Amino acid sequence: MPKTFLKLDWFTIILFVLLVGFGWINIYSTSVTNLEASWLDFNEIHGKQLLWIALSVILIVLVLALEVKFYQQFSSLIYLGALLSLVGLLFFGKTVAGQTAWYSFGSFSIQPAEFVKAAVALAMAKYLTGINIHLKNLKHQVQALFIIAIPMLLILLQPDAGSALIYVAFIIPMYREGLPDLYLVLGIFAALIFVLTLKFGLYYISFVIILIAFLVYFFNRNKKPKLFNYVLLTLLCVGFSVSVGFIYKQLQPHQKDRFDLILGKIDDISGKGYNTYQGKVAIGSGGWSGRGWLNGTHTQGNFVPEQHTDYIFVTVGEEWGFVGSSLVVLLFVFLMIRLVYLAERQKSAFSRIYGYSVVGIIFFHFFVNIAMVLGLFPTVGIPLPFFSYGGSSLWGFTILIFIFLKMDAKRMDV
């Protein structure tokens, strides 16, 4: 164990500690009104989070104590256990705000979805390193996507669309391992068509799709492109645009409201858009250097409900300003760049794939959460890693990172 600690990437650990520490400082700010409040009051949010942080140290030791071979050999069983934990919620889960996503143990609750991500990352690494598995093969692509789809569907049954959305992050390690560009292109096009159809309507977008297809074909006619391929692709795009209305009708009312707000179809700053509006006002009031720790009027006045969870970045913007917000963004960027560097230096494909899975998960959480707070993305229940209150989220990311750091420390032994 001592040798393992010496071989750990301490630059990543320092970034981890800085993010967790600064995250707790902001959680503290959302739950107290003066500096004289006890830091160790476990009846308060900041006290509970401090307890989760302390217990994370024990968790880190346990994660590092296990050999890398354990994660490789038992990845399938870990994945199966993770799926069973999600299935169990349907029978024994605690329902909060309409979501049955937690197991309750007295005054504490555990959200399995936060831990399942590590299990899926291990399962994905195990599958993609199997004998004769190639992501250029359609069958193997479908099987890999199936590994991701099962937990996504189980999480959607809770229902928790935000946590399910994060599993799109596994496209990043799959893309690194050879997934064709076509999937990325189709995904981007599908997202654009979906949003633009909701914004401008079916007929307008269908006309634009047909016009673009005609112009592309016309300017490439000298290359003798196959007309059938252009017609087929155009019909598929228009068909998807037609399906947007059906998909939209299947959304819950609050999910429809979130899309309508972000697209500017409704303007309700005192009702449906209250959180986003107040959040942007608070961040804007922070200015260049912020109002100062514990001096945020919106934070101390609880203008943004549940600010200590998904909207914790509002506190950063208001009390630490542009400088503090930029520092937080840079810390996340440095962490992700470092993890990519570590992933690329791995001697085994299993460790590399797992490392890219960690990067993808952190990136999606980071990007979607901040975009949501800034009103650039619909409001979904996605926490900001290391910052948002919650033991499950903190432990989930701790497990993700330190399993990978263990792999990196043992990379020369492969």
TrEMBL record:
Query: Among the entry's GO cellular component annotations, what is one?
Result: plasma membrane
Does the entry feature the keyword Transmembrane, yes or no?
yes
Q: Which PROSITE patterns match?
A: FTSW_RODA_SPOVE (PS00428)
Q: What is its main location?
A: membrane
Q: What is the organism of origin for this protein? A: Psychroflexus maritimus
Query: Cellular location of this protein?
Result: Membrane
Q: InterPro entries attached here?
A: Cell_cycle_FtsW-rel_CS, FtsW/RodA
Q: Which UniProt keywords apply?
A: Cell shape, Membrane, Transmembrane, Transmembrane helix
> Pfam families, from UniProt?
FTSW_RODA_SPOVE (PF01098)
**What topology in the membrane does the UniProt record assign?**
Multi-pass membrane protein
Q: What is this protein called?
A: Cell wall polymerase
List membrane-spanning regions: 12-29, 49-66, 78-97, 144-172, 179-196, 202-220, 227-248, 320-341, 353-374, 386-405
